[in-house]
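Reviewer comment 2.1 asked that we show a complete input and output for one of the modelled complexes. We chose the FE2/S2 (inorganic) cluster case, as it is the one discussed in the main text.
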Amino acid sequence: MSINLSVKIGKLKLKNPVMVASGTFGYAEEFKDFINLKELGAIVTKTITLNPRQGNLPPRTCETPAGMLNSIGLENPGLELFLKDKLPFLKKLGIPVIISIALEDDPREFVELAKRINKINALSALELNISCPNVAGQKTLISQDPKATYQTVSSVRKITSKTLITKLSPNITCISEIAQAAEAAGSDAVSLINTLSGMSIDLARRKPKLAAITGGLSGPAIRPVALKMVWEAYNKIKIPIIGMGGIIDTLSALEFFIAGATAVSVGTVNFINPKAGVEIISGLKEYLERNKINRIGKLTGNLKI
Amino acid sequence: MVQIKNKIIYNEKFKGNYWHCIFEAPLIAKIAKPGQFVNIKLSDGLKPFLRRPFSIHNISGSKLEILYEVLGEGTKILAGRKKGEYLDIIGPLGNGFDYRRVDKPSGQKTILVAGGIGVAPLLFLSEKIKAKDKIVLIGAKTKKQVLCEKEFKNSGCDVKIATDDGSVGFKGRVTDLLKSILPALDHRLSILYACGPNPMLKALSDITQKNNLPAQVSMEEHMSCGIGACLGCVVKTKNGLERVCKEGPVFNAKHLIW
Ligand SMILES: Cc1cc2nc3c(=O)[nH]c(=O)nc-3n(C[C@H](O)[C@H](O)[C@H](O)COP(=O)(O)OP(=O)(O)OC[C@H]3O[C@@H](n4cnc5c(N)ncnc54)[C@H](O)[C@@H]3O)c2cc1C
Ligand SMILES: Cc1cc2nc3c(=O)[nH]c(=O)nc-3n(C[C@H](O)[C@H](O)[C@H](O)COP(=O)(O)O)c2cc1C
Ligand code: FES
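Response of the prediction step:
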């Protein structure tokens, strides 16, 4: 039986539905010794801002039960240096590159970023990171407010005809409300979920383990939360969902498709097993073959209740 | 840099709370340099979740050695792993020490300074340095925690020891021991390599800079990926924040900001 793993996210056609999550795969070059990068469905870059950002002071990460906390603080070289130093490598891979972007304080930054990105053919899509919990001084996230989400997404939608993905935060009361706002504003897809905010304490020193005190929780610890949000959003929106949060292998990836995801992103697991993404691609194929399902799309939302 | 399962051929208590583990790891052994490290998945499950980084303690033929202190969950699990089992290792990682200046028999005087488990990467370095004039200063809390005295001697080092309680060698900190031998050195013709706790490395940076003694120190910061992707393991340097796992773990002392 021939198995069709390809999926569509907006205008973007992916040869398979497995991508790597922003901030967990660097700029891909870091992984070139471990896997054939060309096998991935798409690569999402570390979040890029208009200007360079140094990020937070260390310690920036710590381990937690079945997961980890990070407070990187969006360290990145800024758009121009990204285009100059990081994009040439990504471009050569010949697979879709999705640039994740965020703003620091002024909403106009998104517009400026999107205008510049429009001119870059090698960037296939934009992921709006309006959900990073690690930017000092930001008390609320755009994606914690449906109105702000709507306004932000529409401001970028007006400027770009590239595929637009909106990445949402789980630190909210009702995910479907926010997902609907993104959809109404013209987002082609939503990415669910960014990290959950959390903290951890070093008992011996009675100090927070992270210098920034709080950070974002990721890894298998957040998978049940992520799955529930994918399922809730799936019931309310028509645009595709890119599911992520604690995926470590084929079985955990499959759960996301069944909950309603069209594609998945692997994140923290890349740190532990750099081969996870490509292993999941072949695992999905085997699963479909074994279960005589000819197309991955048939699994999406196939939850029996 | 490879990710590969390697067989444990030895994993025994070395001294006190310190353990010695040897892997049959031909691919890593072939390319490893002193000062580099490996990032090891200690169990098949989620506990511990992240890999744990360990310095390359020595390489002999196809064998990779690490020396580790049993501290928490991860290292306890490692101490329980048995000969014959396989562990998934990524390595070799990081930049390693630059020892070109002392890599000939007529090379400069080499001073190695180790605090506690900081001996781990320095033994491999000592084995590699061909210069005859080598001295190692080993610092520990008490006699019981002094590590690798014999191994350093065998690698051709003059060994000096400092213990906090004076139970063996110089009584006091290893940095004070260093100060006591500095006057007799020609600083332009010497080079210092160090690994140990951060306060020791900070003190060493001060001393070596005051004395114009070139120094390379191996740093630690919490690591999640070990391959430069997560941006977690940064330290402050004159070029801004740099990654211990990629630009380090070895830094020129004068490049760091404490
Ligand atoms: C480049 C490098 C080389 C190292 N080389 C050696 C070595 O040769 N021998 C040795 O005994 N130890 C070495 N360490 C330290 C070693 O990694 C930690 O002791 C070990 O991770 C502790 O794990 P645990 O689960 O037993 O302890 P935990 O209870 O988790 O923690 C104990 C201590 O180890 C630190 N630690 C825990 N996880 C990590 C991590 N993923 N990355 C960095 N630090 C961590 C914690 O912050 C804490 O201070 C090295 C660390 C680095 C960064
Ligand atoms: C170290 C680290 C850095 C991250 N940086 C970003 C980032 O820059 N932008 C972003 O949108 N998400 C970032 N994330 C969140 C991930 O992309 C992902 O949404 C989240 O970790 C959940 O997936 P996981 O459990 O598979 O890691 C980061 C996560 C981690 C662990
Ligand atoms: S440990 Fe991830 S960048 Fe160094």
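Chain B touches chain A at residues 1-3, 41, 46-51, 88, 90, 221-236, 240-241 (CB under 8 Å). We note this here for comparison with the apo prediction described in Section 3.2.
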